Predict the 3D structure of the following.
Amino acid sequence: MRVKPAAGRRVMDPRTHLHIPEDGINVSELDTYWVRRLRSRDVVLVEAIAAQPEPVKPEPAKSEPVKPPKSTHKVEV
């Protein structure tokens, strides 16, 4: 997810020990530090439009079922 400081706030990145830029940074949505910053409204989520889109996965090719070859060998019973 991408977060940026709320209006009038300065928030420090715990890894770099620098204030995060006004345009925001990408952080893990599982990081409890950033979850707490969101809950306390120190940071806000940046619109999803600014985030990079997920790559499109191609659909697997549809194949017809494989039929066993017809046997030319005659079996007598």
User: Anything to note?
Assistant: The chain has a mean pLDDT of 82. Strands lie at 2-5, 25-26, 43-45.
